[in-house]
Amino acid sequence: MLVLDADARLTADGALAHSYFDGLRDPEDCPVPTPYDDSYDNATLPLEEWKRLSFKEVRSFVPFPRRDSKRRNTLTMT
Question: Which UniProt keywords are present, listed alphabetically (predicted)?
């Protein structure tokens, strides 16, 4: 399973099809992925528009709160 050559490495689909998962697999419960919209990836936009879109994306980021954030920010004296 641990192969350095990416071309010879087992794919995710191949790993999920392994007999180890036979008891866990439910053919009725296979989610169908939605197609990826790559219209922005292939768009020909001016540099300023790319900058504006990138800035908008960065500003929309909301970090996920960590479970240990309260513990980490508390100073304890012993």
Answer: Kinase, Transferase
